[in-house]
Design a protein that fits this description.
six-stranded parallel beta sheet; alpha/beta; Rossmann fold; binds adenosine monophosphate; 9 helices; 9 strands; globular; Pantoate--beta-alanine Ligase, Chain: A,domain 2; single chain; 2 domains
Length: 285
């Protein structure tokens, strides 16, 4: 499986390889990542491997999606381990461009997907989705795959990617894969590595609050204010977690709901030891 494995840093070379493979009748899958790979990333790779003939993983810590004072400089970078895992799994190519390759001098265009970038993550990170949308569109142009895989872990990001693909006529099929969790329920994230053992224990309160909401909903509670209050209470009881938001939105949107009357996403962000953590779940199928 590892014979063809190749790391490419140049966009032109990458694009040519994709076009060549597609001309030979191969379906290409793309998995965009910032590296420091964990089980969540690997589940996207596995979905691509299962559904496509060739899988390309991009590893690029995208500076434009980090705000001032955020963790761009010390974001975990584990390239050698990442490459070993991808080679082992049967990935075909890794695209690992430099910042200069992605953003050469004079680069000015940014992609604005409009209203869906503004609430939730957009409040604490007002320019974040400009960076995400721009880099994703650039990657989809550099790696014009048949399918591109994203994780439900970043719920609002999946909406942003679907919107840009739809509004800008990107032919790549956007595929969204379920959240992969640690054994105790915490959503896997490259940023979990920042947490101390006690911070890691406190952070579990986030996924547990989602479980609590699911249980309450199953028991008949549909009032968002009450669900929200109980979630907050359960997180505060543990301590150490600063909740940024807990929002109930109609699935597939960022529109807040007051009652659970149909498929609803509970999305949350919290800060533990200065690390921002995201999680979400769906209720009301
Ligand atoms: P990142 O490297 O954090 O930019 O993530 C790259 C891709 O992996 C994104 O589409 C994420 O949503 C996805 N991802 C990250 N964590 C998880 C997880 N725990 N489960 C599923 N997908 C994930």
């Amino acid at each position: 499986m590892s014979i063809d494995f190749k790391v490419v840093t140049r966009a032109a070379e990458m694009r040519q390889a994709i076009v060549h493979a597609q001309q030979a009748g191969k379906a290409v899958g793309l998995v965009p990542t910032m590296g420091a790979l964990h089980g969540g990333h690997l589940s996207l790779v596995d979905a691509s491997l299962a559904e496509c003939d060739r899988t390309v993983v991009t590893i690029f810590v995208n500076p434009t999606q980090f705000g001032p004072g955020e963790d761009f400089d010390h974001y975990p970078r584990t390239m050698e381990q990442d490459l070993a895992q991808l080679r082992e799994r049967g990935c075909w190519m890794v695209f690992a461009p430099t910042v200069e390759e992605m953003y050469p001098a004079g680069h000015e265009t940014i992609v604005d997907v409009g209203s869906i970038r503004k609430p939730l993550e957009g409040v604490a990170r007002p320019r974040h989705f400009f960076g995400v949308a721009t880099v994703v569109l650039k990657l989809l142009n550099m790696v014009p795959a048949d399918r591109a895989y994203f994780g439900q872990k970043d719920y609002q990001q999946t909406l942003v990617v679907r919107k840009l693909a739809s509004d800008l006529n990107v032919p790549t099929e956007i595929c969204v894969c379920p959240i992969v969790r640690e054994a105790d329920g915490m959503a896997m994230s490259s940023r979990n590595a920042y947490l101390s053992p006690s911070g890691r224990r406190q952070a579990l309160a986030l996924s547990q609050s989602l479980e609590l909401a699911k249980e309450m909903f199953t028991a008949g509670e549909t009032d968002v204010a009450r669900l929200h209050a109980k979630m907050l209470e359960s997180i505060q009881a543990v301590g150490g977690v600063e909740v940024e938001y807990i929002a109930f939105v109609a699935a597939g949107t960022v529109d807040l709901v007051q009652q659970i009357e149909g498929p609803t996403m509970i999305v949350l962000a919290g800060r533990v030891e200065n690390t921002r953590l995201l999680d979400n779940c769906q209720i009301g199928f």
